[in-house]
Amino acid sequence: MQRAWTVAYEPFFVGAACILAGVALLSAYARVAWPWAVLGWVGLVPWSWLWMRHQSLRAAFATSVVCSIAFVGSTFDWFAQALAEYTGLSAVTARIVLYLSSPLLEPQFIALAFVLFVLRQRPKLVSFASTIQQALAAAAVYTACERTVPTKFLGDTLGLGLLGALPWAQAADLGGVHLLTFFLVFANVLLAHACGSLHAQHPRRFAAALLGTVASLMAALWVYGSWRIRSIDGQAGERNTAVVRVGAVQGNISHYDQLREELGTFAAVRLILDRYFTLTRPQVEQADFWVWPETVYPTTFGKPKSPDGALFDREIAAFVQIHARPLVLGAYDRDDVGEYNAAFFLIPDAGAGLHTEVYRKVYPFPWTEHVPSWADYGFVRRWLPWLGTWKPGREIKVVSLPLGEDRTIRVAPLICYDALMPALSHAAARSGAELLLTMSNDSWFSGLEGKRLSLVGTVFRSIETHRPQIRVTPTGITAVIDAVGRFRILMPPDRPQAAIATLVLPPPRWSLATEGGHQWFLIACLAATFMGAASWLRSGPPKRKSGSCSTHHRANSSGATGISSLR
User: Fold this and answer.
1) Is domain 243-504 annotated with CATH 3.60.110.10?
2) What is the pLDDT of residue 509?
3) For the chain, which has fewer Cβ within 10 Å, the N-terminal or C-terminal residue?
4) What is the spatial distance between Cα 285 and Cα 118, in angstroms, rounded to a whole number?
């Protein structure tokens, strides 16, 4: 009786153990620090091994959905809290919405489970070469899904965690951070096959060959990254390397809507500007130019909506002219189409008084900042009053910023979500940008987890383009990032402060990611996905063998076949 109970429930317990093991490994890997970065190479092994052992597609799908929910619950719980605060939902309701949305937010796990299940049913996939092909196909599908599914908008990808081991992260300059994800998934699938082969009593040299392949990949990426870091550091140490001093101000004022309700519009703007003027003024002449965060000035600049707005505009302009230092600040811009989240470059000019350059945010955050036209209806806004109204800008802009003494620096502004879209920073690098300037507003993240994810995603833009970067936010995390991705926090979160960052501008370097490698890699992944799908459809789904052959196949399949109730 006891043995029958054990046999009946063993798949359930083995499946649950695999899911929990994967959650534990990926949660530790999400710390983005050494030595936890090593876990990225094994974090998906328990789940991959489980998906390859399933006997039905329904079981593989069900466990992949459970894995996506478990991953979101362990890694993105902060997003539920932010969602609750922004929309007014209760914490419980926000979490329910988040968990139900998990398969949409993390669809790559479902795609990987499907591919591993389908390919595992092919009896031909037993050699070393065919196993490599299967791992490559799985990694291609996983990466293509991440890059193309529109519901995956949180900006997360497995490769981000390799920032904890900087040499491994450097390969992002070949094809973007998603190339790192591809390598990680490829390695995890190979290791899952190695585990399965040992359990199925295959020759040990087969598992050893797979382990050797993964170890060689890890070593090759480490050697490449170490060489790249030494090369860029060597250029940065040359005598003719340019140096720029950037003043950053973190005012630690957030929730402007609440300030407006408590103080009124005029008093709220007055409070904000006084804070930033006060923090900037003591050190204003020590920096080449100054940066205030995204939407720090919570109204239109240069196109005032009221006499009070015109008064504030003139006060900001006078501050720039008096101190003769360029100022970059976040505000709103508008035209006949609508309003935009924008960055304003206010440049003192002896002749004209003030020269202004404007960049409009190209990628407003989905729904909270911008609603697509197909969903922008009156009844939708009445049902969801928190929906955003901003319009997207058209393209990246590189601004030539005069610094005095006949010096000029070419700066590419990125506003918050823009910095998570590699195409913009790559286009800026091709247009001659020497410095990436990220203006963000992390104040709607109530904890540090969301702010850290945003910062880590931003760091990879510097690694991919070989450009240093400064990132300024109203409440933290304000940081300076060098051309290889080392970052230094300028000011602790939730503290009003001004600081001056000295940035070394090494000579612009060519990178494959910047010159189209990011897009070519996506095309290759999509091509591999479509070719694999066409091959599968042409040959048809694998047919179950009957009789003793079927019994022999079940006897030799290793490990858990999934949660028994789902089979």
Assistant:
1) yes
2) 83
3) N
4) 64
